[in-house]
Amino acid sequence: MTARGTRxxxxxxxxGDAAAALDIVHQLSEQMIGQxxxxxxxxxxxxxxxxxxxxxxxxxxxxxxMAPSPAQVRRLIKADARAxxxxxxxxxxxxxxxxxxxxxxxxLIECSINLGRAWDMVILGHRELHPVPGNVVFLGSPLAQAxxxxxxxGTLARNLGTGLLVFSFSGADVEGPRTxxxxxxxLVTALAQLARANAQVVVIDLTRGPVxxxxxxxxVVEMARCPVVxxxxxxxxxxxxxSIHIPPVDDRQIG
Length: 255
Known about the structure:
By secondary structure, the chain is of the alpha/beta class. 33% of the residues lie in helices and 24% in strands.
């Protein structure tokens, strides 16, 4: 993080998922936000379904519908990109907040980690499935002091007006208003509990664990079913054979 604020990358595979992540950014102060990046990642799953005759897919509402044609998919992706870009510009709020937007193809987690190496924080978008807003979950081992990830989770909980659940692996309890600590011996047990929890956002720091790999991060996203704030993306070994990244913009705003 720089003197100009936190460099935040929002990564999602659809506008619906991106909007949920951008709602989290809204809870941060203007002073905290230094630069914003957005990346819409085409995972290709719907495109693959379109290649099969009479293929059906499940819509966002849960209805079973006929898969769209390739042309329809291209139009949907273009519309998602336009909406994502427009909302990103709105969230930037001030003329001094620099932002950039890109589209990529590939796996959401792999691309997000590799793109996120140039940023302080990555927010993985996931549209919320619970009808009632849930708690903020901090997943990690709390430090006695100078804990950026835990402080971030606490800030989000206060601004969202909800509770903070600390999933601790160090034996340390976190005290505070509307704060509860749950102790876990391993990540598997914690993820099982996370799947049963109503989480509004999950905060993790990959430099500290217990989540350290792309596969573990994928499990967190699948169990959480909500946006996941990731610090320390640069600590994860890349599984990709190339290095693509969106560099934070230094001297100009891209609009």
